[in-house]
Amino acid sequence: MQFRYEELAAFIAALVEGGTLLPGTRVPSLREISDQRKVSVTTALQAYRLLEDRGVIESRPQSGFYVARSGPISLGVPSVTNPPAKATGVAVSDLVEKLLEHASNPRLIPLGCAVPDPKLLAAVRLDKILARIARQKGSEYNVYTFPKGDARLRREIAKRSSRWGQVLSPDDLVITVGCTEALMLALKSVARAGDTIAVESPTYFGLLQAIEALDLKALELPTDPATGIDLNVLAKTLKTTNVKACLLSSSFNNPLGCTVPEEKKRAILDLLARHDVPLIEDDIYGDIYFGDRRPKPYIALDRRGNTIYCSSFSKTIAPGYRVGWIVPSRYREKILAAKFAHTLCGAALPQAALAEFLATSGYENHLRRIRRMFKDNVEWMTRAIDRSFPVGTKVSRPAGGFVLWVELPKPLRSRDLFDRALKKGICFAPGDVFSASARYANCLRLSCGYGWSDSIEKGIETLGALARAALAR
């Protein structure tokens, strides 16, 4: 004899097996199914939990239950990039400004800006900590901090460094106004106007903006969407070009999502050391990994002190707090002097609140939760692209972070698609903002930072339909 919840589970399973409910489609809500089948909501929930355990359906935060996706993804992966082998001036700021103007519009489906959904972050708890500190010790923090930043915060960050294989002391760190200031300070310490910086291609447009603001040149390196830059091309470049620094992501490059294997990271470090070229690394996505362990950043593998490490909490806790940090290594005096001249110090209260939050187990619990969410979001968006976009579309396979790089079949141009998508209430990032040489016209970046929902899924479907229609013209 079956219990009522088992009977209901068998009924739903039969709909799935018979093709009435297709993979990825929404299952009737608990209220709907309880009304239709004359059972209690509790019984319906028991049935859905049983189906979830069996892998028949899956739950999505704030969205409901869906038929589990099955079968392999048919999409290919993006091609290894092939940028021009020469340094070039950078002029992306106007394009980026227009993108960010649209990306900040709350009426548009948020696929454009790589900023996490505030609802997924720990800002509420952090705000409460900050309010309590302001109430109890506000006058103590209404002062300039030491240029290096809050001592307790630096101590907590130093403790965390041991998790990814690097032993740091609080004195090794300087707190910055987000990762952007950290990168600017690093570039200022190693290069002057007109100098050349080697970068991944494509690379995050914020890095290109920093290079542009300092009147530097960018030399784009061919980059594999899985394993990072071409080591042979880097070796040839260092022999023929006066490169002042190499600016690379540690893991989960934005926008490709690539992660350089540890052995290759060591080879890159050895090569740069032979040419006395410093490495500036951006590790802002390092804590958002989908595997069993965090990838080691370059600095944890570098015993020569040739790496300047930059990161922040903007992608994991609170982008609005604008708290990042830098490990200056052998450029400490230059970076401290530049920090003092540039911003003197960061805001004291946000640093104090973050220090207290990090001192508890709250951050690790929060990271485990958002890693699961971002991993699911990436999976769901990839499958939605697979269903909706034109044949020949290619998509990256990141092992962390929350962005996808989409390569459309030529002659599609993402800039044209962007204008049409805006009219449909959808924002994404066209590929040309990720290159100093105006490449990747047929590519785009999608953010998976917001909780998966019907509106986002429909947005992907609409975007795919626009791409198919444009290709058919």
CATH superfamily of the largest domain: Type I PLP-dependent aspartate aminotransferase-like (Major domain)
Strand content range = 5-15%
Summarize the main sheet.
9 strands, mixed
How many beta strands in the DSSP annotation?
17
Helix content: 40-55%
Identify the CATH architecture of the largest domain: 3-Layer(aba) Sandwich
* Form type: globular
- Find the structural class using helix and strand composition: alpha/beta
Mean pLDDT: 91
| Number of domains as seen in the coordinates | 3
Report Rg.
Answer: 24 Å
Low-confidence stretches: none
CATH topology description of the largest domain: Aspartate Aminotransferase, domain 2
CATH C-level category of the largest domain: Alpha Beta
SSE layout and pairings?
Elements: H1 4-17, H2 30-37, H3 41-53, E1 57-60, E2 64-67, E3 88-89, H4 93-103, E4 109-110, H5 123-141, H6 151-161, E5 174-176, H7 178-190, E6 196-201, H8 205-213, E7 217-224, E8 228-229, H9 231-240, E9 243-249, H10 262-274, E10 279-282, H11 298-301, E11 307-312, E12 324-327, H12 332-342, H13 348-358, H14 362-388, E13 394-395, E14 403-407, H15 414-423, E15 426-427, E16 429-430, E17 443-447, H16 454-472
Parallel strand pairs: 4-15, 6-7, 6-9, 9-10, 10-11
Antiparallel strand pairs: 1-2, 3-7, 5-12, 7-8, 11-12, 13-14, 14-17, 16-17
Helix pairs in contact: 1-3, 2-3, 5-13, 6-13, 7-8, 7-12, 9-10, 14-16
